[in-house]
Amino acid sequence: MDPLALLPFALAASGGCIGPLTASQLVSAGTTLLQRSAPLVRALAGRRSGILLPNGPSWLLALAASDGRAAVVLDPAESDAHLAAQCHTLAVGAVFTTSDLASRLAGAVPLVLLDDAPAAARLVLADREQFIDLGNHYGLDLVGDTAAEGADEPCLRFAHHETAFTHRVLLAAARTAMATHAYTPVDRTLVMSPLATPSAVVYGVAAPLLAGGWLHLPEHVTTASCRARIEGDDVTLLVGTAPALDDLARDINARPLVQSALKRVISVADDSRGVSATVHHLSGCR
């Protein structure tokens, strides 16, 4: 498979950032993780990867380390038994996660702990552990193509969806989102939605990064924390589910924003049936 046709490499070529880290750094770290862990490569051979992570930069690293195969997006809101069953049914060879979530899948599948990413990772197998130093991945010469059409191969598989979304479909959806909602390199996007649906991934990660913008993916989001970032971090674009945005709207209506650079608010579908979003009208948005 041509690596230039993979979603993570297209995002890495854009010059976008997730917090203080460039997309290129994160994708480089994911690539380095595979290069330095033969046991992980063996665990994933002929199988899918799993992603059980809160929002954050490590999400993109995990996608890159999935090496183009159909990564299964596991939702932390599901029960432990359901998560284990998904891993078994969908032939997941290893799951990228954190120490806080590792107990959810204890013993069910090899785990890659990304608590210290992008500096390091830890592979937890049934009989041993491996520390993987990713600290000098920054020198990796990473090449990508933002104009790549994308491979017609599975990229992400979401819960409650019978088929996987291909690299081609996700890149096309991201470009449509960029054109429809005018994502630009100067945008600072705040994501309120968990990355558990295709809409959240396309509008909250792929489109802003492909445009070369700055992205904030907070692990924990509340109305108060979202409001604080809008007022203090020059957020220009907000992505969230309708219920979360409605809560924020009520808060702003009761207490108007002191200052805001917010220009656009996008409400993403909160299911896994497809990729869709609508413009959300929020007081204080210019």
Class by alpha and beta content: alpha/beta
Number of helices: 10
User: Major sheet, described briefly?
Assistant: 8 strands, mixed
> Could you name the CATH topology of the largest domain?
Rossmann fold
Mean pLDDT: 89
CATH architecture of the largest domain: 3-Layer(aba) Sandwich
Instruction: Give the strand tally.
Output: 15
Assign an overall shape. globular
What's the level 1 CATH class of the largest domain? Alpha Beta
Helix content, binned percent: 25-40%
β-sheet strand percentage: 15-25%
The end-to-end span amounts to 44 Å
Instruction: Tell me the number of structural domains.
Output: 2
Describe this protein's structure.
With 286 residues, the chain is α/β, with parallel strands linked by helices. It folds into 2 domains: 3-139, Rossmann fold (3-Layer(aba) Sandwich); 173-279, Rossmann fold, CATH 3.40.50. The protein is built from 10 helices and 15 strands. It has helices at residues 7-12, 23-35, 38-44, 58-65, 80-89, 99-102, 167-181, 198-210, 223-232, 242-254, and strands at 17-18, 21-22, 48-51, 71-73, 92-97, 111-113, 120-124, 129-133, 154-158, 165-166, 188-191, 214-216, 237-241, 264-268, 277-279. The strands form 2 sheets. Strands 8-7-6-5-3-4-9-10 form an 8-stranded mixed sheet, with helices on both faces. It has a 7-stranded mixed sheet with strand order 2-1-12-11-13-14-15, sandwiched between helices. Strand 5, helix 6 and strand 6 form a beta-alpha-beta unit. Helix 2 (23-35) crosses helix 4 (58-65) and helix 7 (167-181) packs across helix 8 (198-210). The model has no long low-confidence stretch (mean pLDDT 89).
